[in-house]
Amino acid sequence: MLKAKSQSALRVPPSHRVSAFASGTAPSPTPPSVASFMSESSRVEWATHLFSFFQEAQHIASTQFHLERIRPYARDFANWLQQYVALFGPLSLRVRPFSLLLDGHAIYRDEEEQHLPFQLYQEGVVGLTFSEAFTEEDAFRLFSICLSPGLESELSVKLWELELPALHMFQTEQTEPLNEEVAWEQEQIVETLQFQMSHDSLAGANFIGLVEDARSTTLREGAPAFSGNGQEGVLTTEQCDELQALIAQEETTLAARAGELFLLVMTQIEEVRDVETLEVWLVPVAEALLKKQAWEPLYFLLGDVLEIGQASRPELSQAYEQLQRNLLCALTSPSSLSLIAEGCDCCSSLSYGEQGGLQTFLYMIESILGVTTLEALQELCSAPLPISSTEE
Amino acid sequence: MSEEFDNPYDEDFAFLAKSFSEQEWMQSEGQHGFLTIDPMFEGTPLSPQQVGVHLFETLFHLSECFQEERDDDVLSLAMQTLELHLNVLFEAEAQLVLYGHEGLFFLNKTPLHMSYQERKWASRWWRVVERKGLGGFMLMGPTTHQQSLSFFEAFLRPDQMPEPTNSLYPLPLHNAQARIASFENEQLSLLGASLSDPIGHAVLLYARLLQWVRQRYNPLSPRPRRRDALRILKGLSSLTEGRIVRFLGFRGHSTQASTYQPYHIANTAVLAMLFGSALRLTRSQQLELALSTLEHEIGKLDLPPELLQKSAPLSAQEQREIELLPVRTVHRLLGDTFRWKRLKQALIAVDVGSRLNRKRDNRAVVEQTLLFSRIIGLCSCFDALCSERPFRAAMRPTQALSLMQGALSHQFDSVLLDAFVRFIRPAVVAAMGRSGSNPPFPGELRKRNTERPQVMQQMQEDLRAYRALRQKASLTSDERSQLDGLKSGLIEHLKSSQE
């Protein structure tokens, strides 16, 4: 059972004042001498109030999801959690299908299948502990993950990826009984692996380090040890930073690289239906390039479609023509035209390659979609379009 | 925050209420469901967990009957079903405690697995019970119709408290809560126990990963969920975080592609993730790297299996098939929908594949510049060299590293290669002195008993006869005796089949 910290340990930061919350009147901070005798019911009330912020944010996320709208609630959550931890210590909750419990009392309830806590329950999470206060940013990240619709991976995995030092999850491995066949196969595999490890094969060395202290391993083998705190590792700190910078840079050039990938795919296409599948892939990539105003890669992408189509047999050529038309239609929607107009207005400040890309893109619009689209675009621009006249 | 459950006939229950109207019930011949006892389902005895769920459904419908003040065959037959459930369970389990709180339900110590909808409506109507300060009931002996009727009527009505009978006792809510808490504590200590054997835990996670890969790369199997792979990888990463983990992979017992390929992919994924951890990639990046590794050869599903086995030089046509591998991989990964993560995986997969093609072909291919593809290329090469193939023997790790640092070094990023050598060194050192060969595989380690319990023809016939009699509006005394006889016979059959 959680107990309040000793008097000497209780610190309610002077800057930390309970503000009036939208959902109701908040209790005043309690002086340390009283706080040390806080009863269990008060702790439950505080925890319930803490999660009322999450509840409010959940409601907003369900009706009109916009990350910034939940930020104030995340801030309040962080502030309130800080108070709670200062008064009562870590907050340890049990996860139930439709509620979170503190000492057997439900402090948060939600019966929606896609919401916390059912998401965590069905992933085998049985307990959650907030061991210390969150920063506002950490709370916002937590809220963003929990309240975002349509996660690709499990919520528990996404929370783990956040690497929040103050959040601990206790998760069982198996949430449903295994199918008999699957369980049998698993058993067989484990026996096979253990057999390999028990013999004098190389597999016998697998995972041995898990039961040895890192320090002793270093001293015995004399090899540079990897340590979690990064004091010594396979790369220097500078090299690790370079890696992270490279990863970040790769993310920004993903769409441009995709063009090269799709060129590879297009060179191998032999069926009309494969060209139709291409459209599903190419449209989001082209739109992303347009959004980034990456004119040169965009031109390359559209140009590849044109060239491959021209080099293909007649029925494929027709399919490629239609593909190019559909792509250009998607890229000249009303919202996209504004983006193109922005690019046109600052064309003179673009690099040579980007200027060429933009001009050729405009030329494609004119030749395939006609002058009407260009006229609509011209109306949005503050200067003449940077396109060579076709008459020239 | 707590939701008041005032109207039991909201749309969640409308379907159930409609499904079990009197007329439909009378027509539900052979339905495996809550108003008919079916101790055998397709020849297999129901588990206590399954009967527990049916028990819940029966209780719910009893509560509906009491709400509607029914006093007819529907109530009577629902009660008979409940009694039979209880008596059958009591015979099997020797005691019966059914309890629940806040959406969790148990039969003795077995948590009842329900679908979301089942659990949701069970939670709602169970609040009627909880509001009275009750958490369930206990059955300490066989019960009679009159005893169970009076007990359950009081148990299920919101305004009555059940009195204990000779065999039925209401369970206070705090007792139910304590039992559930005890179960949860047991789960947590089991969790602790598994983590106190980290090697065993790691082996189990690897086994599950291998199973996932086998299923993923089997064109005849349904596609496994990516979420399951992510959960396994997360478990491995959590287990190994911050520690020196030696890992050189596991090997299949033959050089058949169907055997070695899953091991190769699983080994490469684990190596890549551990290497990524050593490179201080974030957790999210480690998972992305490992997942990309798991699927980077997915295009092989479209290759003729004999091509992967071939030890002789490839023909032009066969070479062409190999060269089409990246395109096939892209199709498999992107499919009919588009996701940016999948696009990145496709780029990584093509990058990794292009490294092999570069020497053979001067056609324009994607430049191998993505960081993850370089990491995967390193790990994949190392594992492949240390594995036996149809066309060559396995190398020792030291030989593999020498080759990678020598003749093959132009294929790799020099900084990453040096880092990889530093990373893998503890494992290579640990493997020194061990023989490089796999132990002679002892064939099937254990034969599985594939004989299922035979369907008891007589029991099936008795069951049909029992149902036919129960559906009758009124029974003669002979028919009543026959019904009782069939009932005790079914209980005996069930008991003996479960022993």
Structure description:
The complex is a heterodimer of chains A (392) and B (499). Chain A is of the alpha+beta class and 392 residues long. Chain A contains 16 helices and five strands. Chain A has helices at 32-35, 40-63, 67-88, 118-122, 136-147, 155-161, 180-198, 214-221, 237-252, 254-266, 272-291, 295-311, 314-331, 334-345, 352-369, 371-380; strands at 91-95, 99-102, 105-109, 125-130, 167-171. Chain A has a five-stranded antiparallel beta sheet. In chain A, a hairpin with a 3-residue loop joins strand 1 (91-95) and strand 2. In chain A, helix 2 runs antiparallel to helix 3 (67-88), helix 3 crosses helix 5 and helix 14 (334-345) packs across helix 16 (371-380). With 499 residues, chain B is mainly alpha-helical. Chain B has 20 helices and seven strands. In chain B, the strands form two sheets. A five-stranded antiparallel beta sheet of chain B has the order 5-4-3-6-7, sandwiched between helices. A two-stranded antiparallel sheet of chain B has the order 1-2. In chain B, strand 3 (96-101) and strand 4 form a beta hairpin. In chain B, helix 3 runs antiparallel to helix 4 (73-93) and helix 4 (73-93) runs parallel beside helix 20 (477-498). The longest helix of chain B has 23 residues, at 173-195. Chain B is elongated and about 90 Å long. Chain B starts with 10 loop residues before the first helix and ends with a helix.
